[in-house]
């Protein structure tokens, strides 16, 4: 047996550490597997671990590895910083002698296995009996695990592996030379822990068979002894030097593992030792074997290195030969590729020249045919066919006419002169025909314009682009369209002037109808000829025609808007409104001037302006859509063009087309924004915004002036009136579809609500809610004054009561305004979605930002409402609450047991206190909105808690007094929870801690409760008591030692 054989024999095939399926398991004959439960065979096992600190436990990790459900609890979480690897999935086992039994039973009630790894007899000290736990849970197996044996007096919470091994008395005398390191110790302890796990598994197996509950006392120290006793029974007789790892010179290892005595002879023979003496007569030891292994290993390495070098040289020679062969083949392939490339290039050139020749021959044929056909067609006035032939002539390559013309005189002499003369003649004939056709088309088109012959105009307008006269054709056709637009404008304005001349009909004239008729007529004409223009002239020339037409459209519409301003007297009204804004209504002394700003007249003007702007925007959207549709069609034609084009070429065409499309879009936008019609309309819309602002302001002022309160209503009419006006104005502006106009109106509405409306309500709130003492004094003085004035005791309308009513109405108005504004905001968002379609991202952001001002205003209304509620509570409820709470000082709180029992039967204070508080609050229930009433209740409850805290620190208590105040506080909190909700319990948290401390039986109990507040995450930092407050509260107890309270040591 060689050393190599020894090394190879020391390795055996092992399975994968983790297998994803049953097929990957290393199996021998006779082994069967369960497919369904292999990954988690213990998935139905419920394991509970009690550990002292949050570190890993071998047994629990073993059960969790095979699918068991594990619950971990520790008593000392703060020691986790001591250990390198502590676990975070532990739950805190916070038990005392009073609550330990109930908590432990609750934890282990559904458990199959309880592993107790707590220090010492912790559960026994907590008065928890293992037998009682197993009676409550008939399936429970309890394993009490520890590091040392129960007979060993040593103790440590988490001893090291080495300390456990040397405490087991296995190595004290047997082998004094053997020294364990960390890895040996860890391996031995792991084997012992596995032995302990096997005991638990056997107990679980026996429970499943016979139903026996068991209590296991398992120590790692005992398990180590058991493992060594088992391993010694299978110990080999072979000397240790034949079962050892030897180190080589290069820091490698050779493993020698001989189990049979017969293999010793073969091993010694491999080492070239004398096997006849059996290795003993020559006093062979492990040092001799180590020297021989080191020498043989070095010799083997040298021999192996030489063999590898020889093999490498042979391989390099082979690589060199193959490289030369590959180089020769690559050279031949390269030469062939060059030959093929040159031939393909020659073929491409030849093909190109042939195609050019064929194309020129075709062009010559077309040229000859045109020259022969066109004169006859002109004579017969078949102008469409003439233009088709001329179009072919204009599209021919100019090189066609230079064939046969060469500066080389030798080539001229060798060539027949017929070809040159024929081409020149044909070229001259076609040029003359082209010139003649241009004159005919232009003259016929001009005659058609003079005569108003639409068919002739359309016919020759289509012919001009075929002979490259696009510009002339568009200019002439634009004149025709302008005349049509002018006819429509004149007809509509004549009808308008007739209506204005009739006094009975003048007041009902709607300029919106005239605007609609003119713009629809222009759009109809453009739509009628749009297809003809785009097909024959293209989109760019169509856009040029539109620019020419727009001049006449501007003239007609601007004149109409000027007439509107004169008839409706818009300029004068705007002038008067500016005067009002600057100097107020006092300057409008003349009745005629006041009538000019009548609301009905203004609304009629608003309607016309809004609808006219709507129609103008609709007209512009129509023009943009028609141009955009033409561009979309052209883009589709490019995508569906000839298949000979490559995808890259199509992409380039689309990119260049997209640039042209954006330029067209910019042109149409400039036309829309810079036309005279748009400028005049924007000016009129600015005047509309100013008039609408005046209308809203004056209407809101009237709503404030005529504000009244309906019977059985908690809000006044001002809320509905104001928000009706604002809603009406803003929604009217939406009809214009002008984003700038809508944003301007929203800004004006926000400013109006914030200044006029909000300040009016806030003025009432600032006047305050009169207190009862002031109200009585005012009422007495008012009564006396009326009696003196009238000479009798006349009933007086109390000004204080009126002030109270106004305050409460204003308070409700603020809350109702916030709700109305929120409804208005959501309604406007829906209107935007329904009426403003196809907005750009810039316009959409404008609307969102402007409408966002309403959200700020809603928050402001809510804040004013909350502030008013606090002022109401401070002036109306706080004095009464303070007076009623201070009555608690009149009751004795140092009680005997008889007094406590008597107070339990007849409550001395709290019941009457709650009745008074409920009476104070109930009178506001029907005169406040629900949200305001809830806010008032919350403020009252906060005030009650604050007053009680002050009163408690003025009292003295004993044990029964503390019990009494704790009971009274719970009664009070229960009432406040009913009327205010569970949120009040968070506010009452601090007072709850105070009453609990006063109810403590001993100082130690109070200290435990106070320290528990530190770890309670539900306690808010603002409600936590300081150390001084804690001592101050305990000092209120007369039956507790003052010295002990001063000497309390807390965290």
Major β-sheet, in short?
A: 6 strands, parallel
Low-pLDDT runs: 1-38, 173-178, 275-282, 404-419, 773-779, 791-797
SS class:
mainly alpha
Determine the number of helices (DSSP H or I, runs of at least 4 residues).
37
Helical content, roughly? 55-70%
N- to C-terminal distance: 73 Å
Q: Gyration radius, to the nearest Å? A: 53 Å
Q: Care to describe what's here?
A:
This protein has 1051 residues and is mainly α. It folds into five domains: 46-234, Rossmann fold (3-Layer(aba) Sandwich); 238-274, no CATH class; 469-680, no CATH class; 707-784 and 796-867; 891-1047, Methane Monooxygenase Hydroxylase, Chain G, domain 1 (Up-down Bundle). The chain contains 37 helices and eight strands. The protein has a six-stranded parallel β-sheet with strand order 3-2-1-4-5-6. A two-stranded antiparallel ribbon has the order 7-8. Strand 7 (243-247) and strand 8 (253-257) form a beta hairpin. Helix 18 runs parallel beside helix 22, helix 27 packs antiparallel against helix 28 and helix 28 (841-886) packs across helix 31 (930-952). The longest helix is centred in the N-terminal third of the chain and has 94 residues, at 286-379. The radius of gyration is 53 Å and the shape is flat. It comes from Parastrongyloides trichosuri. Its main location: Golgi.
